[in-house]
Amino acid sequence: MPQLSSTLGHHGAHEAAPDPARPNTPALVDRFGRVATDLRISLTDRCNLRCMYCMPAEGMKWMQAAQLLSDDELLRLITIAVTRLGVRELRFTGGEPLLRRGLEDIVAASARLVPRPSISLTTNGIGLERRAIALAGAGLDRLNVSLDTLHRDRFTSITRRDRLSDVLAGLEAAGAAGLSPIKINSVLVRGINSDEAVALLRFALGKGYQLRFIEQMPLDAQRAWDRNEMVTAEEIVSSLRTAFALEPDTRDRGASPAESWLVDGGPGRVGVIGTVTRPFCIGCDRTRLTGDGQIRSCLFATTETDLRALLRCGADDDTIVRAWQDTMWAKAAGHGINDPGFFQSRRPMSAIGG
Predict the structure, then answer these.
(1) C-alpha span between 296 and 300 (Å, rounded)
(2) Whole-angstrom Cα distance, residue 77 to residue 211?
(3) pLDDT tens-digit map of 217-229
(4) pLDDT above 50 for 2
(5) What domains does the chain contain, in order, with CATH numbers?
(6) What letter would DSSP give residue 230?
């Protein structure tokens, strides 16, 4: 995988003096007044699907085992985030996080931290049917499941795998295990499933799931994203309005990326995440840890900070804390997708985490 530029403060090495403008707080603050309290943790870049908007049919060159953080390394960084840096929410992602061995043990160890963080999982749902009860028992609070279509042939076309029945079974098992609210993440692909917005919402409302549509983003491994082919948030809302009455949800959105709409007067709701056409960077509260131990201040960042190297060269917790704080203090004002000079990260979504 091509490497991004990286910053690294080695234990014992000369470190730049702290920025005097930075507030005297252990929190992960940035120059624009945002505070990162939500840690997205990619457990692996591997996936058992090959979604057309994410990676090529043949897959990718995966990280080697030695590149990935070990369970002990991962849990040390999670502990620092929660107990030293004010992180309150953990979301485990991938690739496909259910492919990580010992996931239940990682969740359980995270749930024992004080203060106890909220713990969630983003998954494609394959394998969830047999693991939902164990994950709930380990301390998982809720999950998001990716589901772009209700048609088997379309699912196979989008993911290049005939596994729709496994995803639906996983959703049912998650509900039975008490992992609620269950959110469904859907990406509409023009000419493939772009006519399914209404059907997906009817399905979600009928099952008690919370549906969120997500604009397709420039994070595909094949770098084939085309703005003109993206189904926009405006188009999604217009499509839904052919069958439902939508009213803006007046609740405080907070740091949520989703613009929420009441469906037919409520209580049902639908979310639309317009990352490209309706950016929400001003309210972002996320910090990201990749499977190989890199801290990213933004999903679209072009630089990373190598915490794995710090761990493996014997850095103490204080050094790691400063490196993490410095990374977030340098966070850009926005993702820049709509800027003329936007540069797509070399690291694709599957290697960053959703």
Answers:
(1) 9
(2) 32
(3) 766 556 666 777 8
(4) no
(5) 5-351 (3.20.20.70)
(6) B
